[in-house]
Amino acid sequence: MxxxxxxxxxxxxxxxxxxSSAPAETELTVFAAASLTGTFxxxxxxxxxxxxxxxxxxxxxSSATLAQQITQGAxxxVFAAASxxxMKTVADAGLAGTPTVFxxxxxxxxxxxxxxxxxxxxxxxxxxxxxxALCAEQVPCGAAAVKALDAAGLKVTPVTLEQDVKATLxxxxxxxxxxxxxxxxDVIASAGKVTGIPFPEADQAVNDxxxxxxxxASPLARRxxxxxxxxxxxxxxTKAGFEAP
Amino acid sequence: xxxxxxxxxxxxxxxxxAFLVLPLAGLLVRAPWSTLPQRxxxxxxxxxxxxxxxxxxxxxAVCLVLGVPLAWLxxxxxxxxxxxxxxxxxxxxxxPPVVGGVALLLVLGRRGLxxxxxxxxxxxxxxxxxxxxxxxxxxxxxxxxxxxxxGALRAADVRYEEAAATLGASRFTVFRRVTLPLVAPGVLAxxxxxxxxxxxxxxxxxxxxxxFPGRTQTMPLxxxxxxxxxxxxxxxxxxxxxxxxxxxxxxxxxxxxxxAA
Lengths: 245, 261
Hints:
The structure holds two protein chains of two kinds.
Chain A: H1 2-21, E1 27-33, H2 37-50, E2 55-61, H3 63-71, E3 78-80, H4 84-92, E4 100-105, E5 107-111, E6 132-135, H5 140-152, E7 160-162, H6 165-173, E8 179-183, H7 184-189, E9 195-197, E10 207-213, H8 219-229, H9 231-239
Parallel strand pairs in A: 1-2, 1-3, 6-7, 6-8
Antiparallel strand pairs in A: 3-10, 4-10, 5-8, 5-9
Helix pairs in contact in A: 3-4
Chain B: H1 7-30, H2 36-40, H3 43-76, H4 82-89, H5 91-94, H6 97-108, H7 115-122, H8 130-155, H9 158-166, H10 171-182, H11 184-200, H12 203-208, H13 219-229, H14 231-260
Helix pairs in contact in B: 3-8, 3-11, 8-11, 9-10, 11-14, 13-14
């Protein structure tokens, strides 16, 4: 009985060793900002098609959370962040290669399709009758919103400061708020459920997205970053509403 | 003579204890003790703490008023569909709280099934208000109370109730004078669980009530947002929440459960 147990356990151990040494060459884990979910999934498919036998796995989330996971030792090959600040925490820990800014994202006013509060520009958001949702200042979209409002010299009192841009957008989609400041890419991704209104002050609060390979990453990581920086990568990203840097 | 404690029980018990307590030790070890007083005196911390305590307590009161009768209905009456109803009551337990929050928005939101009507009649809408926080917390926490009280009711001896009824007491009098005192420890345990769950509530609250300091930003929301930029501040906030809740729970236990035993 005990002997059998030992055999089974050692088989497990062997199997575990076997599987952990092989994938270094063929598997790549990419940590990317939540706003890159659509585009990076697409790029991952293209990467796998161009490099047969490889497998790209993504971990999408808030850039700050991802940065924290990486500094706590999460195994990742590539990090694509929604703000230079979050990339900096990883670089400061000596875990990232030199980051390159690969896209920019701009804010837009998102309103429900019927635009119940008749919002037309940034100034309309200061009306106390208009319910506004912003991202919390701690997350990149919130920092950008503060910058844009400051640049315009406007003071908006939101009803809520959401934890990420998707949560902010959901409040608009459900009609709980009359307007929100979100990224242009999010408006495009939710086409039909929200309407986007560009505003000139958004130019003062452009978000740079840096990408970098991480320490001890396989050569695949470099190749994935190259794909993102290529013309093909740029096409996928600009189609989704990002701007080339 | 005391018999030996069986190892088969002690070893997993100790492991279980370590599993529950070690993360707590992690918080204590990593806490920025030197800047602690200064961080604690920030008005936003006190505001979030006050809001958390008030909303969790009001939510518990709401759960008691609605949940105890519901538990009684489930334990003491028989009607078609009772089992299904019992399963439905526990839905918030298995539902991811964020989904619970979305569901609340779809019903009580400004464009929700009931919320729409509420807003057109009274001009009031629940999302983004402190009342909304209470609703979200009560939604998630009530099953804990209902299950605890129902369990206590099922374990209680119905012969006392029958005796009271044969002596002419109405069903409500029986409930008030016999049943309720009989299951009081169960109600208290349920209320404590319910309060603790409401205090730690995050997903449904941020989804349904949003996050605004002083109005809907409870401690768990403040912790989550602090984690985005300042993990140390998040640890301090977690410790405060922890210390306050442990203090209150221990104090209550000594006062009521201890006295009852």
